[in-house]
Amino acid sequence: MPYLMYVTLQGDDKMLTFTMNPDTGYLTPQGSIDVPGGPAPLAIDPARRFLYVGRRGACEVSSYRIAPQTGELTLIGTVGLETDPCFMATDRSGRFLLSAYYEGQTAAVHPIGGDGVAFGPPIEWRHTARGAHAFQTDPTNRYAFVPHIAGRGPNEIRQFQFDAETGRLTPNSPPAVQPEQPDGPRHFCFHPHRDILYFSNEQGCSVTAYHLDPATGTLSPFQTVSTLPEGYEGSNSCAQIGITPSGAFLYAPNRGHNSMACFAVDAGSGLLTPVGHVPTEPVPRAFCIDPTGNFLYSAGLESGRLAAFRIDQNAGTLTPLELYTVGERPMWVTILSL
């Protein structure tokens, strides 16, 4: 089974493709394609047939067909946007493209045709607030969440009911959850086996775990833990967040301390226990965990390099494997199995 990695380079207007060896974690370059207009966020449909690229400089989303044997990408459509997207994902059916707009203060839903092309006009172009940074539906595809950072945003998570037939959003009750401190929820991931979400807090430099009520689609926090080592007093902010397919380990990068915070996840409660920090390339904005859960790849926004790590399956700690020069301003890293 081939494993393909895609990396967007906002500074080079390119997207790179690598194959990943599932035994060693080593990457082999397969080429690049030109993506004018500052490519940044990526999304892949659940069937792994189509890939979507947010072109922040051009304020567009481009749709690509993924060749089933090689992972080669073919451009099949582009749709214009009112402003630039900072995050994208498909819903759980692959029929809708969800996107968040930091400066645009918006969460949007675009239809995806049977040919895989995301097109307009959007079904939803919903004004939320400045600092909208992510947008995903839960595994049941009935609820959706849009976190907003603190400082330049309202420091809250908007909660919606999601109509999987129409793509429409309805504010839930309550319509938002606000942290007690100005933590600034930015990105989030779902526990693979439990009704739990984990949010990275950009300003709080922490991760907060929330219970998801499956009957109402509302969130309630039950733990917040720092991503920084004790005693660190320098500047820092958090970015993305990821959990292994097994649900055993969770990771969140520190931009400033330039490290990857590693956590063990309790199988019963979902509580997090810090297990260490590993140095990364400068400003680790983007990272991903491979589908086997054995490897983690972190891109340095300032260095233009991609660091590969092996995940210890007993402790969750990271062992450096290799460094790859990728290019200017790597903004997104994702891996799929074909």
From TrEMBL:
A Gene Ontology biological process in which this protein takes part is: glucose metabolic process
Q: What's in the keyword line of the UniProt record?
A: Carbohydrate metabolism, Glucose metabolism
What GO molecular function terms would the record report? 6-phosphogluconolactonase activity
Instruction: Cite a single Pfam family from the UniProt record.
Output: Lactonase
Q: Name one GO cellular component term.
A: cytosol
Q: Which InterPro entries match?
A: Cycloisomerase_2, Lactonase_7-beta_prop, N2O_reductase_N, WD40/YVTN_repeat-like_dom_sf
Has the keyword Metal-binding been applied to this entry? Answer: no
Q: Which PANTHER family match?
A: 6-PHOSPHOGLUCONOLACTONASE, 6-PHOSPHOGLUCONOLACTONASE-RELATED
- UniProt similarity note: Belongs to the cycloisomerase 2 family.
According to UniProt, the name of this protein is 6-phosphogluconolactonase
Question: What's the source species' lineage?
Answer: Bacteria, Pseudomonadati, Nitrospinota/Tectimicrobiota group, Candidatus Tectimicrobiota, Candidatus Entotheonellia
